[in-house]
Amino acid sequence: MDNILYHYTNFDILESILKYDTVKNKEICFWASRYDCFKDGEEFKYGLEWIKSTLLDHENSLGRPKEDQIADFFEPSIVLSNPSLPKPFVVSLTVRPDDEYMWQSYTKGKDVGMVLELNLNDELMNIATVDNKQFFLSLYNCLYDLPELEIWNLINFQYCYYVYAGNIGNSVPKFFCLFHALALLLFFCPRIKQANYKKENETRLILGVPDLEWCNIFTEKSEELGVSKEQIIEGLKKFSGNRMVNVNSKDIEQYVSDIHQNPHNDKWYKELFLPKAALKGIYVRNENLIDKIKEILVSKNLKDIPVHLVERCY
């Protein structure tokens, strides 16, 4: 079943997005922005504040001992000032190619703006996640409604707590707390948006990337927690399902270290790769761009990708 979503961008970076003669299933490359580097720097802080404000009640309802609770770790000043904590990297998507608000907000205007149509169904996401070893890659709708968040949050915490405890058995409690905190920071926090952005109908490709310092989770950290590297790898596999079936500690260290800094603005990003089968079309509002885009598509062995003219936006 198709899952069609749209990414607003500009013509001048099309050639950098579309790769030629590259590694199989890595023909499309986005620069996923580190979440705390967004233009709206308050967005990440808002998610942290919301988690902190609700997490304590949920942890108490689960009967989690005080020494195992993690709510206080989500104090925004602590997270944002600690360079060793992990940060999510994000590519933003939405549900329509003809949204006037999105054209004005996320392109350089109708003369040079464009929209990529992507099919991110389960099969293609599995290729991007497993085959490309982007094993912390997820696709989530943003959450804008706080009552909905309350319900989702409580169910998720209960599920994680009981399922993880059942799978891991008698593992060290700190081991569970570590991965629970990581999951919330990397995958849940970047879903939360303020209600006044609801009209964006945003879905996000999220790459959870622990900071470089977290590589030592497989060395010093494992000793502190009283578990072996193998136990940590097995814990990660159970935590993330089939996306880490053939993963070892070297794969994780490579994944963690492969981040970059934009030379133009010093913002951090990570390359996010998708298979070429994910690209289904390109939309423009300037008819003069159509032939230029088709020329690039031919040069990238993507000549069958249609280019559409958006005649009206709403």
Automatic annotation (TrEMBL):
It comes from the Bacteria. This is DUF2971 domain-containing protein. It comes from Odoribacter laneus YIT 12061.
